[in-house]
C-alpha cells in the first residue's frame, strides 16, 4: 500500500512541476518530448541491470508492432495531451480530467474486451461525465475553464484509459521496463515533428523537465509496479485516485492556483465515479501509467 500511495503522490507532482517549465516559456510538447526521451534510457538500464534483460528483449520482438503502437498512443498522445491540459487549465483541472480514464474504460471494454456494461459501471460513467460537466461549466475562479482545457484533459483521460486495454495483454507478457524501453523512444519520435524547441531554457525549467522524467515517470512507474505485487489491482487503482488531490494541493501551495467551488464539487463527483468504477475487483486490472 505505501508504494501505491507514494507513486500517486509522485504523479500528483507532475502538473505543478511541468507548470514551472511552462511558466519559463517551454512549450507543452517539448516538455512531453523530454519526459519520454530522458526516461527511456533509465528504463533501458533498469531492464538490463535487473537480470535477464537480453532474453526479455528477445521475447518482446514478436510484439514490437504493438509496443510501438502503444508508444504512439500511450506516450505521444497521452504525454502531449496531458501537458497541453496543464497549460490550458492548470495542474488541478488536468489531474481531475485525467481521472475520467476509468469511465472511458467502462465504455470501451465492452467492444474491445467483451466485458459486460453493468448497471454499476453505467452509474460510474454517469457520475464521471456529470462531474466533468460541472468542472467544464464552473466559473468564478481565477482559472478560466475553457473548451481547450476540457478537450485536452478528456483526451489525456482517453489515451490513459488505453493503458488498461493494452496492459490486459502486454504488461502481463513483458516486464514494464522492457515495454517502456521500446514505447518511450517511439513516443518521443512521434512528438518530435510537433516540437518547437526553446532556444534558451532557464536552469529552473531544465530542473523541472528532469524532475518530470525521473520522479513522476521513471520513479512512479517502478513504485506502482512494486505495489502491485503486494496489493490487488482494484485497490491499487482506488489508492491512485489520490493523485488529483495531491496535484490540487501542490498547485495551490506553489502557485496559488485554485478553481471555482463548483469545479471542486465536480472533481469530487468525478472521483466518486472513479471509486465506484474500480470497486469490482474481478472486472479489470488497474492501469500502469
What is the helix/strand order? Answer: HHHHHHHHHHHHHHH
Largest sheet geometry:
none
Structural class, by secondary structure, is mainly alpha
Distance between the termini: 17 Å
Number of domains: 1
Number of strands: 0
Rounded radius of gyration (Å): 18 Å
Low-confidence stretches: 280-289
How much β-strand is present in the residues? under 5%
The count of helical stretches stands at 15
Spatial shape: globular
> What's the average pLDDT?
80
Looking at this protein, list some descriptive labels.
disordered C terminus; 289 residues; mainly alpha; 76% helix; 15 helices
3D architecture notes:
The protein has 289 residues and is mainly α. It has one domain (2-277). The chain is 76% helix and 0% strand. The chain contains 15 helices and no strands. The chain has helices at residues 2-12, 14-23, 28-49, 53-59, 64-89, 91-98, 101-113, 119-137, 147-167, 170-173, 176-191, 203-228, 233-239, 243-255, 261-277. The longest helix has 26 residues, at 64-89. The two termini are 17 Å apart. 55% of the residues are buried.
